[in-house]
Specification:
Helices cover 40% and strands 22% of the residues. The protein is α/β, with parallel strands linked by helices. A seven-stranded mixed β-sheet has the order 3-2-1-4-5-7-6. α6 runs parallel beside α8. The longest helix is centred in the C-terminal third of the chain and has 21 residues.
Length: 215
């Protein structure tokens, strides 16, 4: 079975969790991996969340230096089995199967995330975004994408409780972007077109630093 066929099959089986009908295009993969920058002589830790069939993983792997490591966290056991076979003999790649919000994450220089945040409820999106931003080392970056142009279409077909749920999730993602984003790029060559957001953790608010020490 090809990667595209497996993707389509998983989309038909678990549309919300799979989040796309096809793997990311090479253009989208390049934008998502823009900040996976090798640093010769310094081991760098990279995390990819939701690697699916590995369309983005291949780009990350291609730019890893000999000291760098790549951790993959994939919730879907069928995608994980495919990735397990592809990287079984690679000592620089480690695979964990299960939802990222249930993992004990280490700390990373770069996190690339392929999760379909728009399909999650607000609490799950918030939980995952906090956990990923919190797992970044100083100077680290988190890159993730969202499909463009789908919002007006969704608002035309979803209403009531479903729409309120989507708006709450959007608000969570927008809050994280407002606080931590330093760049967004449009990728038109993808099905559907997408926007890639790059985030770096903002310093904690000054208020948090002024909490008086207990007497
Ligand atoms: C939109 S696909 C992206 C796949 C791949 N990164 C690509 O760009 O082609 C989303 C992926 O996230 C995985 N996923 C969904 N929820 C997840 C979670 N909570 N933790 C880890 N992976 C998850 C899905 O199984 C799927 O492989």
């Amino acid at each position: 079975m090809t990667d595209v066929t497996l993707f389509l099959k998983e989309f038909a089986r678990a549309r919300r969790d799979t989040g796309a009908i096809a793997p990311s295009s090479p253009r989208l993969a390049r934008a998502l991996t823009r900040y996976v920058i090798p640093s010769p002589g310094h081991p760098r830790a990279v995390l990819e969340v939701g690697p699916g069939t590995g369309a983005v993983t291949r780009h990350i792997r291609a730019v890893l230096g000999p000291l760098d490591s790549l951790e993959l966290v994939e919730a879907n056991p069928r995608f994980a089995a495919l990735l397990g076979r592809a990287y079984a003999a690679d000592p620089q790649v480690r695979l964990r199967t299960g939802p990222v919000q249930e993992q004990r994450l280490a700390s990373y220089d770069t996190i690339v995330c392929g999760l379909p945040f728009a399909n999650f409820d607000a609490a799950t999106a918030d939980d995952i975004l906090r956990c990923l931003i919190g797992a970044l080392r100083p100077g680290g970056t988190l890159s993730f994408f969202a499909y463009s142009g789908l919002r007006p279409l969704r608002r035309a077909v979803v209403s009531g409780a479903g729409l309120r749920r989507e708006l709450r999730t959007q608000a969570v993602v927008q809050r994280a972007l407002a606080r931590h984003r330093f760049r967004t790029e449009a990728v038109l060559c993808n099905l559907p077109p997408a926007r890639v957001h790059h985030l770096a953790p903002a310093a904690p608010p000054a208020r948090a630093e002024r909490i008086p020490a207990p007497a």
